[in-house]
């Protein structure tokens, strides 16, 4: 379990993290979302005990990170931003070193090392200096050190940053496989990642917590939620047919791809009416869909008013 209480970090008069409180329970994969400079890494560093808060507190599995650092760190696996490691070491030497400082020994040490090497498919690069590995393998080494002692709490700062689509998929699969009994917090800019791995999302911007909800709940805040969009060669005819429907509030055409979207009046279902109206007017549809909502639009509308001012 992770609990932060009014967690705050000031650099001079600048509040990088401003009064953030939340609690994460086992089984939750919490996506930490926010624009550049929002305060995500700073918050994670304070939970991981790498940075002292200016005020407020963080607990890991009930242990205060500042007053009980050993117990808190024992319960925690942390992948810092950029997955730093000792570049001149090989993955075998580096992970052996991490196993030693984590206090693993004997059969358990061997078992845990075998487990992470297998999970992250590191066997082929064990003897190659980390600084010569590809970005994807460097990130896997970073993840391996974070999960080596099988901690109940994982904090992963942009775990898929810079990876190719296949590697992203592998890391997301790994996170999903570990999610059942652990508390996992990941930070990301990638909104599709939230749907792929998270069952809860927190949006922060300007150091402040602005939203805390399940991804589907956030999508439901989108003005596209329950809208109907379609493509057709007969744009004007379709627009006219939909504009007259009583439960349709407005109709928009995307200037880039000519996609037509009909927005419902509050609380109205318009899918059947849209489909019937197009049929009645003889409009040939290429494709039509009911929208669940667009996370990118929700993200923008929540974070834009809190964009940081340029500091001098
Ligand atoms: N040591 C420091 N001294 C002064 N300001 C800092 C320091 N570390 C971070 N900041 C500032 O605090 C703010 C939050 O930074 P942080 O790295 O937590 O953001 P982030 O949400 O992780 O951003 P990104 O997505 O770009 O990694 C930024 O404006 C950053 O410039």
UniProtKB/TrEMBL annotation:
GO molecular function: ATP binding; ATP hydrolysis activity
The UniProt record lists the keyword Nucleotide-binding: yes
Entry-linked InterPro entries: AAA+_ATPase, ABC_transporter-like_ATP-bd, P-loop_NTPase
Source organism superkingdom: Bacteria
CDD domains to which the protein is assigned, alphabetical: ABC_DR_subfamily_A (cd03230)
One Pfam family this sequence matches: ABC_tran
Key words, A-Z: ATP-binding, Nucleotide-binding, Transport
ABC transporter domain residues: 2-231
Keyword Membrane attached: no
UniProt xrefs under SUPFAM superfamilies: P-loop containing nucleoside triphosphate hydrolases (SSF52540)
Family assignment from sequence similarity: Belongs to the ABC transporter superfamily.
Protein name: ABC transporter ATP-binding protein
Taxonomic lineage of the native organism: Bacteria, Pseudomonadati, Pseudomonadota, Gammaproteobacteria, Methylococcales
